[in-house]
Structures are given as structure tokens and as C-alpha cells.
Amino acid sequence: MNISKIPDGPWESGLSPDEVEVRHLLGAYKLALVCANYQNIWHRLSCFFGSSDALRTEKMVQDAKNRVVQALNRSDGNRDILRRIIEAQPEFVREKDGFLKLIQLN
User: Fold this and answer.
1) Can you tell me whether residue 9 is helix, strand or coil?
2) Alpha carbons 48 and 41: distance in angstroms, whole number
3) Residue 3: what pLDDT?
């Protein structure tokens, strides 16, 4: 492998700094959703009954969601980036992730 060919940053691979930020925040949000089992019924019941693990992951989901929404509120360009990411997802992933709801929160 030729080390001189490795880009210094993600923006050198054709991604803008805004796109890198949106993708990073979405990745953190999706990881939080996975940790919370996509907020399924068991997760919600665990939160209702006060499980410290469930409440901790729920806070992680809400914090990650808030960071994504703040980034999307900064510009129309960031919302366009999210729309392009959503369009590239397979339908079943798009429905499970629910990223479109993040745009509607604005």
C-alpha cells in the first residue's frame, strides 16, 4: 500500500466538511438506536419500569438526535445531505432508521 495515496481527511475523498459532520452525527444516532434496540417495546417497557441501562441508552438516543437536528437546522445544505443519504438507503433500512423524521422535526 502506498501511504502517499491515503487522503489526509475525509473531505479529500470528495466529501465536504458539512457532509462529514452530518454523516458522523447520523452514525452516532444510528449507533444509539441500535443500542436501544430501535426503541422497541422492550426498551420502552424497560424505561417505564426505571431500568438504569434503558434510561441511559434512551438519553444517548435523545442526545444524539438533538445533535443531528441542530446540525440540520444550520442550513438547507445539511438537510439536502440527509435527503441524499436517505435516498441511497434501501427501503427497509429507510423505514427502520426513520431519518426522514429528523427533517420533519425542523
Assistant:
1) coil
2) 10
3) 42
